[in-house]
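User: Just a sanity check before I run the rest of the batch. Below are the structure tokens for the first item. I only need the designed sequence back.
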């Protein structure tokens, strides 16, 4: 009789072939998760990342982000603009990196995380920490202390076009 992995006694799971069967099942389960279609949040709900910027906690919409990089390698560049931290290479794209704290008139961040945004030119901001993922309704979203990509781009443009 050929029992499935879940039916095997614990001792047999670690015998010859037991681990291979378990590994195969785990691999198949992992692969299956990528074959399922992405399920958007229920209508009207907004996915947010909660960010720590100095002593402030801010939210940003997940759909406005391109990447979140932990421990980014940032090459500093000399700049008269205090908000410019430098550049980073993110998946073969050179990204200009700004400090979100400085852009918002707060103290500079430690730069533990880099958030990048889709679009040209490639732009990213550093934050102290990514705290949590939240899914909220539109009424709550209307009152959340939120950073928008549009606001950030306007702040960057104002620095660049001085």
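Assistant: Here's the designed sequence for the first item:
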């Amino acid at each position: 009789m050929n029992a499935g992995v879940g039916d095997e006694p614990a001792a047999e799971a670690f015998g010859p072939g037991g681990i291979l069967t378990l590994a195969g099942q785990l691999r198949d389960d992992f692969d299956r998760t990528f074959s399922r279609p992405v399920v958007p949040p229920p209508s009207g709900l907004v996915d947010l990342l909660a960010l720590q910027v100095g002593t402030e906690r801010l939210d940003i919409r997940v759909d406005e982000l391109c990447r979140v990089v932990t421990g980014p390698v940032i090459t500093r560049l000399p700049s008269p603009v205090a908000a410019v931290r430098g550049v980073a290479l993110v998946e073969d794209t050179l990204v200009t990196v700004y400090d979100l704290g400085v852009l918002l008139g707060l103290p500079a961040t430690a730069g533990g995380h880099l958030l990048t945004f889709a679009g040209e030119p490639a732009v990213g901001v550093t934050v102290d920490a990514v705290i949590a993922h939240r899914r909220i309704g539109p009424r709550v979203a209307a009152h959340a202390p939120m950073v928008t990509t549009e606001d950030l781009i306007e702040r960057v443009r104002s620095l660049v076009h001085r």
